[in-house]
Design goal:
heterodimer; A: 295 residues; mainly alpha; flat; B: 440 residues; alpha+beta; five-stranded mixed beta sheet
Chain lengths: 295, 440
C-alpha cells in the first residue's frame, strides 16, 4: 500500500471536515460548556455579590435541598409545567386542526399568532389587569352576571389556573404553527383512501394524522417544557408567587435568590436543578417516542 | 434607442447630483466644531422627564432644564429603569466598568453599593463646597445609614423626604359624619361604615410584588409599640413578636369583622393609587410623594387630605425615608455629577421640584422659599414637616435584603388573612424563612 504523503493527508475530506469543525466547537465550548462548568463551580462556592470567596463544599446543596420551600416550589413547578404544556398543546393542536380542516385563511392564521408575538411581560400585565379585582373586566362581568365570587388571583387554585391559562394563551401559537405545518405535509390521498373505507373524522385523526405528527409534537413538548420550567415573566408579573407562596416556582425562587438576595452560590444549585428537570422531561419524551416507534 | 439613452443619462445625472448633495450634507455636519468644554452627564432615574402626564416626571424635567440653563455646555441625558431594578442595573454596570454619572437610589440600596464599591464618597465635594451647618439642614439625620452615611463617609444625598401617611377622602368622611381616625378602633369603625357598594373604607396594597407598600405600613405600626422591632441590630427578622401578633390580628379583624374585601391583598401600589383616584378607595396608607399628583386626578368635589396613620392607641409615629442621588464610581465626570447634585439640593430647586412634583423637599432651608410661604399647597406641605415632631419617627432600619423582608411579611399577611392560618406560627415561620434565606 503506498505511503500517503502529508499533502494528500491534508487534502483528505476527513481532515478538511475536522478543520471546518474546529471553529464551531470552540464557539460552542465558549458559549455553552464554559457557563455550565462555571455554574457547577459556583454551586460549590460561597459568594459575596458577584465574587466567589471560599469553597462551600455541599453547603449550598444542603441548604437548598433540605429546605421545605424547595419541595413546595418543585411541586409548584411540576404542576405549572404539566398544566401549561397540556393546555397550550391542546389549544395549539385544536387551532392547528381547525386551520388545516376548516380554513387556512392568512388573516385567521395571523390573528392566532398574535399572542406569540406579544412580549411575555406585556401579556402578563394584560392578564393581570383582566383578572384584577375590582378594576378588571372579567371579575366585573362575572359579578354582573350575579355570581358572588372573590378575587380570582387571591384564591390559590384560581390563581394557579390564571397563570396556567395566561401562559398557555401566550404560547399556544407555537405548537399550533408547528403542528399545522406538519399536517400540511400529510398526503391527501391517505385521507381520501380512508374516506373510501368509510372512516370517520376521529378515525382519520387517530390512525393517520396523529401518528404522522408525533415527531413534531415531541419537539414541541420539549421546547414547551423548557419554556415553562424556566418561566419567570408571567408568574412574576401576575402573582409574584402569591397568594402566600402558592404559585412560586423554582425559576421564580432562583430569580429572587440571584437578583434580590444576590446569592449566586445557591442560585447556581437551583439552576442545576432546573437544568436536570429539563433533561429528565426531554429524555422522557424521546424515550416515549422511541418506544412507540415514531422516530 | 435614442430615447432610452436620454433616460439613462437623466437617471445617472440625478444619481450623481443626489450623491453630491448628500456628500455636501455629510461634510457640512462633519465640519461642525465640537466644543472641547462640552460634557455629557448621564442620569439614571425611574422618572421619565419626557412623561409630562406624570407630575414627578415634570418635576424631574424642571430640575434638569434649570441645570441645562445654568450650564449650557453640559448635555444631560437620562436613562429610565423600573424603580426596583435601578440598584441591580448599577451593580451590573459597575461590574463591567460602565455606567451613569448620577443615579437615584434608596435607603436599602446604599450598604450594598458601598460594600460593592459602586458609589463614591461625596466627602471631598461636600467639604470643599458646603458649609458645616449644611449637614443639619437635612430633614433625615445626616449620619444615618438609611441616609447614605457609612464609616465617616456620605455616599448619597436625599433628593426629597417622603412620609408614609394616612390618606383619606375628607368629603366622604364629612358626609358620613366620621372624624379622622387616630387609633385602630376609630379606623376599624370608619372602615366598616365606609365599606360597601364597591367602596373600600381602607386599603393598603398587599400584593406580593408590591412588598414596599405593606412594609412601609408595618414600619409605622411596629414603631407604635414600645421596643417592638422588625429587624434587630444584627439584621435578623424579629417581627414575630407581640406587636406583630396585634398588628396582623388587626388586619384580620378588618377583613373578618369589619367586612373589608380581600381585594387589596392582590393590589400593587399602582392599583391602590388608581383606585383612590377613581373614588373607590376612601382611605389608605400611602406615601406623601403622591398626594398632590393624585389630588389633581380626583373628580370635582372629592377632597384628599392626609394625617398620621392611625396606630393601636393613637396616631402612629411617622416613617420617613428618601430617594437619594449618588455618584457611581464609574462616572467619567464626577465633578460635573457633583455640580448636578449640588444643583438638585439647592433650596430654590428643591422648592421648584416640590411645586411641580409634589415630593417633599429634603432640606429645611427650602421651606423658606416663597412657594412654602404663600402657596396653599406649599403651606400644607410645610405643615407635614410637623408630624414627626408631634408624633415621633418610626425606626427606619432595614436590611440589605429588604425585598425579601417585605415579601416575608406580605406573605405572612396573605397566609393569616386569606388562608386563616394561626398568627404566631405564621409569623415565626416567615421570620425563620427570612433569617434562613439571608443566612443569619
Amino acid at each position: 500500500m503506498p505511503k500517503r504523503t502529508l499533502e494528500a493527508t491534508l487534502n483528505s475530506q476527513k481532515v478538511l471536515g475536522i478543520c471546518f469543525l474546529v471553529a464551531p466547537i470552540i464557539l460552542a465550548l465558549a458559549i455553552l460548556a464554559y457557563p455550565i462548568v462555571y455554574l457547577i463551580r459556583l454551586s460549590f462556592m460561597h459568594t459575596v455579590m458577584f465574587d466567589t470567596v471560599s469553597f462551600a463544599g455541599l453547603e449550598n446543596y444542603s441548604r437548598v435541598l433540605k429546605s421545605a420551600v424547595f419541595l413546595q416550589n418543585l411541586k409548584t413547578t411540576l404542576i405549572y409545567a404539566v398544566g401549561s404544556i397540556g393546555v397550550s398543546t391542546l389549544i395549539g393542536g385544536a387551532a392547528a386542526l381547525a386551520l388545516h380542516e376548516v380554513s387556512s385563511n392568512k388573516l385567521i392564521r395571523s390573528i392566532f399568532l398574535m399572542p406569540w408575538v406579544i412580549a411575555p411581560v406585556i401579556a402578563a400585565l394584560l392578564w393581570r389587569w383582566l383578572l384584577n379585582d375590582p378594576l378588571g373586566p372579567i371579575i366585573h362581568l362575572i359579578r354582573n352576571l350575579g355570581f358572588d365570587v372573590g378575587s380570582i388571583m387571591l384564591d390559590p387554585l384560581l390563581a394557579f389556573a390564571g397563570i396556567i391559562f395566561a401562559g398557555a394563551w401566550r404560547s399556544f401559537p407555537f405548537p399550533m404553527i408547528f403542528l399545522y405545518a406538519k399536517l400540511q405535509t400529510i398526503p391527501s390521498q391517505l385521507y381520501e383512501s380512508a374516506d373510501v373505507d368509510g372512516a370517520k373524522w376521529r378515525h382519520k385523526f387517530r390512525y393517520i394524522s396523529l401518528p404522522l405528527i408525533v415527531d413534531v409534537l415531541v419537539v414541541c413538548l420539549i421546547m414547551l417544557t423548557i419554556r415553562y420550567v424556566n418561566e419567570i415573566d408571567i408568574i412574576l408579573v401576575m402573582t409574584g408567587g402569591g397568594p402566600g407562596r402558592t404559585t412560586e416556582t423554582l425559576s421564580l425562587s432562583l430569580y429572587k435568590t440571584a437578583f434580590q438576595n444576590w446569592e449566586f452560590g445557591r442560585s447556581g444549585v437551583l439552576s442545576l436543578v432546573l437544568f436536570g428537570i429539563n433533561l429528565v422531561f426531554a429524555a422522557s419524551y424521546l424515550l416515549l417516542q422511541h418506544r412507540t416507534g415514531h422516530r | 434607442m435614442r430615447e432610452r439613452k436620454n433616460t439613462i443619462a437623466i437617471v445617472v445625472a440625478a444619481l450623481l447630483l443626489s450623491g453630491l448633495v448628500t456628500a455636501g450634507f455629510v461634510f457640512a455636519r462633519g465640519a461642525e466644531e465640537v466644543d472641547p468644554d462640552e460634557v455629557t452627564i448621564t442620569i439614571w432615574n425611574f422618572l421619565d422627564e419626557e412623561d409630562q402626564e406624570d407630575a414627578r416626571g415634570r418635576g424631574f424635567r424642571a430640575v434638569n432644564d434649570a441645570f441645562r440653563e445654568k450650564y449650557p455646555n453640559v448635555k444631560l441625558e437620562t436613562e429610565i429603569y423600573p424603580w426596583d431594578r435601578l440598584s441591580e442595573q448599577l451593580l451590573l454596570a459597575h461590574r463591567v466598568g460602565e455606567g451613569p454619572d448620577v443615579v437615584r437610589l434608596t435607603l436599602m440600596d446604599f450598604k450594598r453599593h458601598v460594600d460593592a464599591g459602586s458609589v463614591r464618597s461625596l466627602n471631598e465635594f461636600i467639604e470643599e463646597d458646603w458649609p458645616e451647618d449644611a449637614k443639619t439642614d437635612f430633614v433625615l439625620p445626616w449620619e444615618a445609614e438609611y441616609a447614605g452615611f457609612f464609616d465617616g463617609h456620605k455616599y448619597a444625598l436625599p433628593l426629597e423626604t417622603r412620609m408614609v401617611l394616612y390618606w383619606y377622602r375628607a368629603d366622604a368622611f364629612r358626609e358620613e359624619g366620621i372624624s379622622v381616625p387616630e387609633a385602630w378602633d376609630d379606623l376599624a369603625e370608619a372602615t366598616e361604615v365606609l365599606t360597601g357598594d364597591g367602596k373600600y373604607g381602607f386599603a393598603v396594597a398587599f400584593d406580593i410584588t408590591s412588598w414596599s407598600d405593606p412594609l412601609y405600613w408595618f414600619m409605622s405600626m411596629y414603631g407604635a409599640f414600645d421596643d417592638a422591632r422588625i429587624i434587630d441590630e444584627d439584621y435578623r427578622a424579629v417581627f414575630n413578636n407581640e406587636a406583630g401578633v396585634e398588628i396582623f390580628g388587626f388586619l384580620r379583624e378588618l377583613v373578618e369583622e369589619r367586612n373589608l374585601p380581600t381585594s387589596m391583598f392582590g393590589w400593587t401600589g399602582y392599583d391602590l393609587t388608581t383606585s383612590f383616584a377613581a373614588g373607590t378607595v376612601l382611605s389608605s396608607s400611602e406615601g406623601s410623594h403622591r398626594v398632590l399628583g393624585t389630588r389633581r386626578d380626583l373628580a370635582e368635589g372629592q377632597e384628599l387630605a392626609v394625617a398620621p396613620l392611625p396606630g393601636p392607641h393613637g396616631p402612629a409615629p411617622i416613617y420617613a425615608f428618601s430617594w437619594s442621588l449618588a455618584i457611581p464610581t464609574v462616572s467619567e465626570n464626577p465633578e460635573w455629577a457633583w455640580k448636578y447634585l449640588d444643583h438638585a439640593m439647592s433650596p430654590e430647586i428643591q422648592a421648584l421640584y416640590t411645586e411641580i412634583s409634589g415630593e417633599k423637599p429634603s432640606r429645611y432651608s427650602s421651606l423658606e422659599e416663597p412657594y412654602f410661604q404663600t402657596d396653599d399647597e406649599g403651606l400644607e406641605i410645610k405643615q407635614w414637616f410637623e408630624f414627626p415632631d408631634v408624633h415621633g419617627t418610626a425606626d427606619a432600619t432595614l436590611p440589605l435584603e429588604t425585598p425579601l423582608l417585605g415579601e416575608a411579611m406580605t406573605r405572612a399577611a396573605h397566609e393569616i388573612v386569606l388562608e386563616g392560618q394561626p398568627i404566631e406560627e405564621t409569623l415565626d415561620r416567615q421570620a425563620e424563612w427570612f433569617n434562613s434565606e439571608v443566612g443569619r
